[in-house]
Amino acid sequence: MSAAQYARLVPRKYRHRTLPKMDRPIRPRVISWAGPSAFYPNRFYEIDKWYKARIDKPETIPDMHIIEPTDYTKSIREILEKPQTELINIGFKKPELSAKKIEKTEEDRVELERKSRHMELLISIDNLEIPNLSIYKHFNIFDDLFAQNLTEKPDIKIEKIGNSGGFNTLLMVNIDGNGFLEQKNGEFVQYLVANIENGGEIGTGDEVFEYLQPLPFYGTGFHRIAFVLFRHSEKLDLAGISGAANLESRILNVSEFYKKNERVLTPSAIRFCQTKYDESVKRKLHELGYKSPLYNYEYLPALKPDQKEYPKKPQPFDLYLDMYRDPKEIEAEVLEKRLNTIGLNDVEAPKWLDTDYNENKKKLPSWLHSKMLDRSGPNRKLYENIEKK
Amino acid sequence: MFKIGLQTAQTSLTRTPAVLSSSARGIANIPAHEYHIRFDQQSGRKRPAQDVLDRFKRLNNGMWIHAHAGKNKLRYMKDDKWQKTSLYYETCTKEQCQMLDKLVTPFWLRPKHYPNDPYQAYNVRHGIDSPRVDDKGRFVRERRKVLLDDSTSSRYFNDC
């Protein structure tokens, strides 16, 4: 406000002796959506541009949560659930488990809660659900109790169903054990006994495939072994399937097998377990005249940045230059080093990486010393005894 | 003669001169005669900066390397990663390399070869295709002293 305006507006009686300092109203300095150009001082045209920018801002409506009237009564689980195709139960009726379930009243709950707080709560074994084996599996009870128990034929008992005749066929397959996936598609059959009479022992059936212990190869992790029991009223003719000693002949496509005998077979029970590699697998494979294969994870080679003639950031010179050297050249260097150390009759790997560690630690440049001690990468070949393998 | 050459190659970076190791030598304590290019009064020739020769090594491809600065300071209070990376010998930047080249005599810019040299593998660089001659026709990296057209040189002289 100028002095003249002040004089015009305020009568002399109320005027201050000096012109009061009056600021113009503050306008916002930062409006992110308007950009800095909204505040360029331009006294000649569009003086209220900064204000216009605010007016022109597009109105945004927040996303509303839309409630479908038809889904209103459904729970969130039902809404999110994917539509599932109806499963056909092709097996027998599941027997009712005789686990006692005690109804608890509100008073019982209060009492139980009090007991639990005072550490007096005792759990009755009778009221526990017996076939809940997850706790045993969690603590590896079975693994440690019955280690290597798959080398011998498992003791399987089949429950008798009714008094009528009929036959059972037991199939034990390793779902993850097909080592001949390129030649044959299917699962690895460990054991196949057909035509076991109702209520009879396993031995009474025809042993189509002799029992062979599961062979999860080294590095392939856990294998799922499934025991499937089929029931059929007439005897099954398994002429097409022959149980030779050959491992490759043990591969059977179970779904195809079932499809072929769909009219006769009804799956009636299934159990499964998991196994992983141990020493017995190697022993068994050697016994059968195979070599025990080793599976390792193949990592991708490490990414490397483009080489700069002079890297901006200081780099460890040996590692940086090694990264762009020809790997063959590095291997040749390592081989030369190795051939220098070994004699004609003595191809043993050195017992110690560096016998003069303390001396060398002081004397050698650190990059050279660490290269000397390095076992990884191409230097691994210095210590691996290739000739002995 | 070879023995001496080998020793200088291996220990020039690791060994600190006895005189210098006794006193703390920060950036402020560098004596004035060391941050100039000095010339010999008798012959008028350039004298190499002895400090550069003590602390740095020049690979034959023109790259200077040096130990990590302050690697011996307060090691006990620094972390494991630093304990490891501080031992690396680091590369210099282009500007540093140019400066260091000027601080030493042409003798030290000549390619050096020693028997059983652990640095031998790093004397050439692979896979660099930038021009090896600058705009004034001077060699910017070591190479065979034949000036060829680009296609021939990239075909036969990849390493430099």
UniProtKB/TrEMBL annotation, chain A:
InterPro entries: PEBP-like_sf (IPR036610), PEBP_euk (IPR035810). SUPFAM superfamilies: PEBP-like. One of its GO terms (cellular component) is mitochondrial large ribosomal subunit. This is 39S ribosomal protein L38, mitochondrial.
From TrEMBL, chain B:
It comes from Caenorhabditis angaria. GO terms for biological process: translation. InterPro entries: Ribosomal_bL35-like, Ribosomal_bL35_sf, Ribosomal_bL35m. SUPFAM superfamilies: L35p-like. PANTHER family: 39S RIBOSOMAL PROTEIN L35, MITOCHONDRIAL (PTHR15909), LARGE RIBOSOMAL SUBUNIT PROTEIN BL35M (PTHR15909:SF0). The keyword Hydrolase does not apply. Belongs to the bacterial ribosomal protein bL35 family. Keywords: Mitochondrion, Ribonucleoprotein, Ribosomal protein, Transit peptide. It is found in: Mitochondrion. One of its GO terms (molecular function) is structural constituent of ribosome. The keyword Ribonucleoprotein applies. It comes from the Eukaryota. It holds the Pfam family Ribosomal_L35p. One of its GO terms (cellular component) is mitochondrion. This is Large ribosomal subunit protein bL35m.
